[in-house]
Prior knowledge:
Blueprint: E1 2-3, E2 6-10, E3 16-20, H1 35-40, E4 44-48, E5 51-55, H2 61-72, H3 76-89, H4 96-112, H5 116-130, H6 137-153, H7 157-169, H8 187-200, H9 204-217, H10 221-237, H11 241-258
Antiparallel strand pairs: 1-2, 2-3, 4-5
Helix pairs in contact: 2-3, 3-4, 4-5, 4-6, 5-6, 6-7, 7-8, 8-9, 8-10, 9-10, 10-11
Amino acid sequence: SLSSGVQFWKDEDGDKDHVERDNITTTQDTKVATRSDIIRCKSDVITTNSTLHIVPHPIDHYIRSKVASSLQASDYHQVIMLLDHLAETQTRPPNHCTKCLTLVGCGLAYYKLGRYREAVLQFQELVEACRPDPSLRGTHSLAYTYLGDIACARNSHEEAAGFYEQAVVHYSKDNLGDVFMIQMPSLAQTCIKWGQALRKVSKIMQAVAAFNKAIAMATDKKEEMSARISLGNMLQSLGDHQGAIDEYSVTVLIAQKLNDNV
Length: 262
């Protein structure tokens, strides 16, 4: 169990190995895991009827729950510390799922802290880790989305547009970010990001196509309104006032039905 900052693993012969943990404690219901338990419960990605399921590993389940709560609390330094501990204390090579989870969590934490160089390294490694595995398609898309967000934050909008395009190409709703309760943008929202990045670099026709794709892929009326407003704003800036009015008019009609003061 984990107590007083020390993690114990019980071997089959009853001996205990210990790994130092810096000031990490857990609740009383944490169980001692034997090495055979660890082998039997090896964390993996299981796809059933196109739905992604994560089977937690008994050794890192506590860390995962703490990472999720730390992300929700915006305690990004704690996220990095927890995931560093997870990497350091494993006595076996991490399986593919655990490695990708660590990259997702650390990448997001570095991004939120404004440490873009470290975040880019995490997400680039995540892209390569996901590339050969079809079950990680959604996580692949999530990595590209964050790379696009970082590029936008750096005012590298053409690079961002390329990343968002890849996020759209690889899009799948299921992704490992769900384990940490990281909300993935919808396909329509990703298309809007893509269109806005293209607009910044004056790739107008591609931007129009991206916004129209967002309208077509919208899962609800609010997403459709957001896409139409983005398209209308771009058309207005280009002097196509009638085109802008058409988009705004449709948006107003939708908003009236939703009682939304858009």
